[in-house]
Amino acid sequence: MIARQTRRTGAAISTRFLMRSGPAMGPRLRGWEIDVHLELHDICGVVVHNRGVRTRYSGITPFPEIMVRLKASRFTLAASMPLAFVGTASALVTTVSAQQSVRAEPTVQVTGAVSQSLTLKASDLAAMPRASVRTESNGIVTTYEGVWVAEVLKKAGAPLGNALRGAALSTYVIAVASDGYQVVFSLGELDPDMSGGQFLLADHANGQALFGETGAFRLVVPTDKRGARSVRMLSSLQVVTVRK
Predict the structure, then answer these.
(1) What are the helix (H) ranges across the chain?
(2) Average pLDDT of span 54-78
(3) Cα separation, 126 vs 48, whole angstroms
(4) In the listed set 101, 126, 149, which residue is the last one of a domain according to the structure?
(5) DSSP label of 211
(6) Greater confidence, 97 or 153?
């Protein structure tokens, strides 16, 4: 390694270093200087960029959310580069991984007109009764796993079941995403005993924990004809009662 520079921008951590390839890279690449960027993003695996060619290798790193961008004016074989090359930067990768570990664990909150506010982590949802739904979009079938929204609201003490009558029927829930996107549901439609609808607070898709642009949590509405109410990056459920 020749030089290294690390900086933090908001929640992202980016590290840049200049590294000279060694004998392990073979005679064709020996002595070349490679400009490498590692950035913490909401993706999993290694992504190699070179002259507009993008190749992703999923599940090969011992820690998530690492993007490796390899840029070199003469490095024409980046897309087929031996992944052992990443190992030569192990000291730097360990540093970035340690910085990642201090990031706050994602949570989803339940607040408002409930008997107790909740802040739930993935481990909390894993301990609750689990459910799954299937969605299809553009021919792609996805199986989401998580907890029914009604179960989460019930845990917070929202009026559901036999308690959902009278003034409680004017209660609604605002699903809020971390980027400010919001969707409103009536409490009645979220209660399966009243509407028979399916509303899932998902934390897994096809057996894998949610990540990336989807966020750690997603409110999935499989029966909707359009996906606009399936809130990605779900951060809170705010319960509001209009009539007191």
Answers:
(1) 84-87, 90-101, 122-126, 149-156, 187-190
(2) 37
(3) 34
(4) 101
(5) -
(6) 153
Q: How many domains does the chain have?
A: 2
If asked whether residues 81 and 121 sit together in one domain, one would say: no
Distance CA 153, CA 238 (A): 10
What sign results for the dihedral spanned by CA atoms 187, 193, 196, 197? positive
CATH code assigned at 133:
3.90.420.10
Structure-model confidence comparison of residues 103 and 126, the more confident one = 126
Same domain, 30 and 46: yes
Q: What average pLDDT does range 200-204 have in this prediction? A: 98
Residue in the structure block whose two tokens are 């992703």:
56
Query: For residue 179, what are the domain limits?
Result: 108-241
pLDDT value at 9 more than 80? no
**Which stretches does DSSP call E strand in 102-199?**
108-112, 118-120, 131-137, 140-148, 171-177, 182-186
Tell whether 179 and 234 lie within a shared domain: yes
**Domain edge (last residue) among 67, 101, 135:** 101
Residue 22 CB neighbours (<10 A): 12
Same domain, 65 and 126: no
What mean pLDDT value characterizes the chain? 73
Six-digit token pair at 175? Answer: 């699903």
Closest to 160 measured CA to CA, from 199, 114, 227, 208 = 114
What pairs with residue 110 in β-bridges? 118, 237
